[in-house]
Structures are given as structure tokens and as C-alpha cells.
Amino acid sequence: MSVADSLTIQNKAATRRPGSRLLAILVLATVVALLIATPFLPNYYVRVVNGLLIYILLGIGLNIVIGYAGLLDLGFVAFYAVGAYTYGLLASPQFDLHLPFLLIVVIAAFLGMLTGILLGVPVLKLRGDYLAIVTLGFGEIIRILLNNVGWLTGGPQGIARLDKASIFGIEVARPVEIYWLLLVTVILVATVVWRMERSILGKAWAAIREDQDAARGIGINTTNAKLAAFATSATIGSIAGVIFAASQRFVSPESFTLQESVLIVLMIVIGGIGNILGIVAGAAILILLPEVLREFAEWRILFLGILMIVLIIIRPGGIVPRTFGPEAFFRRLLGK
């Protein structure tokens, strides 16, 4: 019996354990209950959940570059800013343009994709630390531009009085309405990205992640695959930026600092690189835990830092490892 066959048998045996199925049922029931209960909570808690969903959306986008293609991007917040300022410029008194929300989403997605390609082209031959430094610099360049091109972006003061979002004549402005918009968007984006991971393009990303030279040697066009990763990731980041701007009805450069990029990277690393379920777990810890510890304002960052160190030591592969993806979860749920 080969090693692969042995591992397959062990994995199947693990999925048949009653405890595993019970745990999967409990997790799914808890998540569904929270999603149903959220609209009935006070606005403060709904806003917290909305923030969580935005970061999950950002994590899914960045995970394409880091988790699937193995490229370290520290400037992802730039695409988030592109989407937010697209809405800020096209749905505000800044230039007296008041375009429909869905049209702005399409425009922002296109601009994000174009920006991702523009970033991807110069860094195609870079790897590791060099790639991280260049992408970090790109993110900071975008933030500095937003700060200094006052006639366009409003400078440090940002752009206020943004239009309320409206979809097919239905206003989407209250926290509960934004919640449903975000929830639907996250589910759709997660489904599309999960299918992409299983496609031929996803296999190419996995090959590049493991060994770029070997991937090129077996005939994979690494240039196109990398550009596709950057473009797809940037598109999702821009869509998240549009929803963020529509929910806040205000944008400023302070929302798009390096700290935001690092936070999204930490979500992926702690939750589980290359795993959508891991992103949800990482976002829940890094976004919800500070709110839970808000009463301990002087100590909560210390508690969070200690927890992160402990998690990295105990679970170096993340809370939800790469091997335990959505498919494995539902197999356990069904007892297969």
C-alpha cells in the first residue's frame, strides 16, 4: 500500500468519527444562529458584525495572492482604498456626481483589477522579502497620494456626505441593510473563489506556490497566473472598499494605513493560510476579540498579542489548516 493510499484511509476514518460530525453540526448551527440573530441586535452590534464581514471579504481577496499563489502582498489595502474612493468620488458632492451604487461597484471592480495588474507587472520576477517590500511601498504610495492630492480626494479631511446606497430602488443605508448586503456579497465571493481554487487556474496557483521554477518547467504560464491572482485579489478588495464607503458615508486616508494590511495578513496566518474557513476564524479572533475586551482598554492589545503568539506556537498551520477546507467540513457534517 502506498503512502498516499494510507493517508486517504486515515482521512476517511477521521471523517467518520461521531465526535467530528457532532462538532461540525454544532459549529454550523452556531454560525447560522448568529447570522439569523444579528439583524435583531442593537445597531452597535450589527455594525461590529458588518466590520467583521468586511474584513472577511478582504481576507478572501488577499488569500488568493498569499494562500493560493504564495505571493506575500503587504500593500493590499491600496485596492481597498481604490474601491472606497471610487465610491467617494462618484457618489458625493465632490464633483456633483451621483451614479447608481451597482454601476459604481462595476467601475470600482474594473479599476481595482487594472490597479492589480499594474502592480503585478513590475513584481513578476520578485519573490519573498523583495516582493513584500515592493508591495508595501505601493500601498504607502497610494496612501500618500490620497493625503496630498487634495483637489481630487479632499486630502486628510477626506470626502464626506456620500450618497446612500440604493439597489433597484431599495435604499441600503441602515446597519441592518448593510449587513444583508455584506452577507450576500461574502457568500457569493467565497463561492466563486472556492470554485476558482478547484479550477485549472487554482491548480496553477498551487504549483507556483510550491515551486515557481518547477511550475514553469511543466508548462504553466506563471506570468499570466500571477497577474490573474493579483487582478482577482484587487477586484475583491475594491468591492469591499465600495461597501465600506457606502456604509460609512465618509472616506479618508486614515482608513487605509499599513496597519490595515498587516491586520488582514495576520487574519490569514492565524486563521489558516489558503483556507476560506480559516479566514473566518482569524477574522473572528482579530476583529471581535478587541470588542469583547473593550472594558480592559489598557490591556486588551497585550491580551491579543499573547493570544496570537500562543496560537502561532500551538497551531503553526493556523486554527483551520489548509487540508480542512469547505469540502472536508461538509463531509464531516454529512458523516461521509
State the end-to-end distance. Answer: 22 Å
- Estimate the strand proportion: under 5%
How would the global form be characterised?
globular
Number of strands: 6
Overall pLDDT: 87
Q: What is the tally of helical segments?
A: 15
- State the share of residues found in helices, binned by percent: over 70%
What's this model, at a glance?
The chain has 336 residues and is mainly alpha-helical. The protein has helices spanning 3-15, 18-37, 43-68, 77-90, 101-120, 128-148, 150-153, 175-198, 200-210, 212-217, 222-248, 258-271, 276-292, 300-314, 326-334; strands at residues 91-92, 97-98, 159-160, 165-167, 170-172, 250-251. A hairpin with a 2-residue loop joins strand 4 and strand 5.
Could you explain the architecture of this structure?
The longest helix is centred in the C-terminal third of the chain and has 27 residues. 72% of the residues lie in helices and 4% in strands. The chain has a two-stranded antiparallel sheet. It contains 15 helices and 6 strands. The radius of gyration is 21 Å and the shape is globular. The chain has 336 residues and is mainly α. The N terminus is likely disordered.
Q: Key terms for this structure?
A:
72% helix, 15 helices, 336 residues, 4% strand, two-stranded antiparallel sheet, 6 strands
Chart the SSEs and their pairings:
Layout (H helix, E strand, L loop, with lengths): L2 H13 L2 H20 L5 H26 L8 H14 E2 L4 E2 L2 H20 L7 H21 L1 H4 L5 E2 L4 E3 L2 E3 L2 H24 L1 H11 L1 H6 L4 H27 L1 E2 L6 H14 L4 H17 L7 H15 L11 H9 L2
